[in-house]
Amino acid sequence: MTLPKLRIRHIEVDVPIIQGGMGVGISWENLAGAVARYGAIGVVSAVGTGYRHPDLVKRDKFGRPIGSENTHSPEALKRIIQDAKEIAGGRGAIGVNILCAITDYGRVARDAVEAGADLIISGAGLPMKLPQYVDGAEVALVPIVSSARALNLICRTWEKRYGRLPDAVVLEGPKSGGHQGFKYEDCFKPEYQLESLFPEVLEEAKRWGDIPVIVAGGVWSYHDIRWYIEHGAAGVQMATRFLATHECDAPLIYKETVLSAEEEDIILLKSPVGYPLRVIKTPFIERLLAGVNGWKGCVSHCVTPCNKGEEAKKVGFCIADRLGAAWLGNYEEGIFISGANGHRLKKQGMISVEELLDMLTGKVPDPTVEEDSVRITV
Ligand SMILES: Cc1cc2nc3c(=O)[nH]c(=O)nc-3n(C[C@H](O)[C@H](O)[C@H](O)COP(=O)(O)O)c2cc1C
């Protein structure tokens, strides 16, 4: 079966796969550009862009961008999007992932529009005011939800306040990398798994005029993608599999850390953003679990729920500093994110985005999947 095209508002791409936004710095111009060049949707992360172009921002003596304007820098985001589009060479589409929780959310959404993003994907909270910030610009708006209730609330609010509905919705289940839209204990319950949530979100999306539903969180193979598309999804969003690609913007040590992770090394942690965070057990996490508080003060003011460092102090780390350290290749001090399936990457090994997308579109065999398996693995 050839996978169908994906249509979201004015965007039409040949391959119904969105590469999920990964911050800090795991999906920037190189990964997103390569994915778009293949004919899919590449997504750059809007968080911590000051790390990508330190020459454009003010930093402290440790190299950390100072304040939200420098941490989530408009100039750096613009450069990343332009570079991604250049790599894409006019194919596919380039989206921007913006965490609802970041300080200056509205300003960053406007930055993304000015920089020429084709779509904005937004989660870690409900993007209730997103249409207001983009003010009629021709950009597709795609909230990330973890329930039909959340989708209903967004649709009701957007329709009433702005006369607009989401152009698509990402339903993200609790096997995804990074922050989870569920309570810790719910992440393990069968009724909160992606395949259980999918029918009711699909139903809710139909009620609002067939909003395309994109599924995310543990979707692994061509067979999984086919299964969801045959059951009504418009496409999938995937992230963890892209970690083991040459083009992924993470440093080599990041990719090696995921490639050597065992299933039991991938754990859920309390984060200053207020949601469980899925990470790999690395030296800093071991120290944290042993009771060491690694908070070193707040310079970035990166996310509002953290309350200028108050929550970070409680959970024992600053999310911007630790993800920034990982992006800088600091294995000892960084926090390294992975989806629950990260341990399966060993069988994939490091490959190019083109090779991976050939596997995910069923063109070539996938070494990580049993031959002839049509079992869904989410
Ligand atoms: C390293 C990493 C970083 C991530 N960072 C973000 C982020 O900044 N914002 C966001 O909305 N989702 C983030 N995610 C979630 C992905 O965009 C994606 O939806 C999810 O991981 C899909 O599940 P999968 O990894 O099992 O394919 C991240 C995922 C990973 C693996």
Element layout with pairings:
Blueprint: E1 6-8, E2 11-13, E3 17-19, H1 29-38, E4 41-45, H2 67-71, H3 74-88, E5 93-97, H4 105-114, E6 119-122, H5 130-134, E7 140-145, H6 148-162, E8 169-172, E9 178-179, H7 194-207, E10 213-216, H8 222-230, E11 235-238, H9 240-243, H10 252-259, E12 266-270, E13 276-280, H11 283-289, H12 310-315, H13 319-327, H14 353-360
Parallel strand pairs: 3-11, 4-5, 5-6, 6-7, 7-8, 8-10, 10-11
Antiparallel strand pairs: 1-2, 9-13, 12-13
Flavin mononucleotide is lined by residues 20-23, 26, 45, 47, 97, 99, 123-124, 144, 172, 175-178, 216-219, 237-240, 337-339, 341.
Report on this structure.
There is one protein chain. This protein is of the alpha/beta class. It has helices at 29-38, 67-71, 74-88, 105-114, 130-134, 148-162, 194-207, 222-230, 240-243, 252-259, 283-289, 310-315, 319-327, 353-360, and strands at 6-8, 11-13, 17-19, 41-45, 93-97, 119-122, 140-145, 169-172, 178-179, 213-216, 235-238, 266-270, 276-280. It has a domain at 6-56 and 71-250 and 345-360: TIM Barrel, CATH 3.20.20.70. The chain has 14 helices and 13 strands. The chain has an 8-stranded parallel β-sheet with strand order 3-11-10-8-7-6-5-4. The protein has a 3-stranded antiparallel β-sheet with strand order 9-13-12, with no helix packed on it. Helix 4 (105-114) links the parallel strand 5 and strand 6 (119-122). Helix 1 (29-38) runs parallel beside helix 3 (74-88) and helix 3 packs parallel to helix 4 (105-114). The mean pLDDT is 95. Bound molecules: flavin mononucleotide (FMN). The site of flavin mononucleotide has 29 residues, from strand 11.
